[in-house]
Design brief:
Layout (H helix, E strand, L loop, with lengths): L8 E3 L9 E4 L1 H6 L5 E13 L5 E13 L3 E15 L6 E15 L10 E2 L5 E3 L1 H11 L16
Parallel strand pairs: 6-7
Antiparallel strand pairs: 1-2, 2-8, 3-4, 4-5, 5-6
């Protein structure tokens, strides 16, 4: 049985959340054999504008990392809270959502091609961008505060 590694989220100074949430995986890569896994809890609270109508307020969950031959598989499980606008009554309301998705981080690459994620030379993997991307896709284009919202004709 392998020794468990203590992985934590870190932040790099930035005004933009998608460029500031990282996990250092150096110990995980050094100590772990292929197939080894580690789960990292994640939690962020902030006000981040996704677009003019939607503001992300927080997310939390976990990321399960699995070491493969030349990559790390990251399995995300995320719950989020966003403030959005109902398209019928135009009131702002909180929308909760929950997501599960995967990303692959390539090992041993200096630069990433379009859409690829890599483990940086500092052994950091950036997780804020993929989380924001998936949350953005999850929020409906025409959100409703409740399914039977009557809009202005109440």
């Amino acid at each position: 049985m392998t020794e468990k590694v203590n992985l934590k989220m870190t932040k790099k100074p930035s005004d933009n959340i998608d460029n500031s949430v990282y996990i250092n995986v150096k110990d995980f890569l050094i100590k772990g054999p292929v197939g080894d896994t580690e789960t990292i809890p994640i939690h962020e609270t902030f006000e981040k504008s996704l677009d003019p109508e939607n503001t992300l307020r927080s997310f939390e969950g976990s990321i399960k990392l699995t070491l493969l031959e030349e990559e790390i598989l990251a399995e995300f499980s995320v719950e989020y809270l966003a403030k959005t606008i109902c398209v019928r009554c135009l009131k702002r309301f909180d929308r909760e959502g929950s997501l599960a998705f995967e990303r692959v981080y390539l090992l041993g690459r200096r630069t990433a091609a379009d859409g690829e994620l890599i483990v940086g030379k500092d052994f950091q993997i950036e997780v804020g961008g993929p989380i924001l991307e998936e949350i953005n896709f999850d929020i409906p284009m025409k959100p409703l505060c409740k399914t039977d919202c009557q809009g202005f004709n109440k």
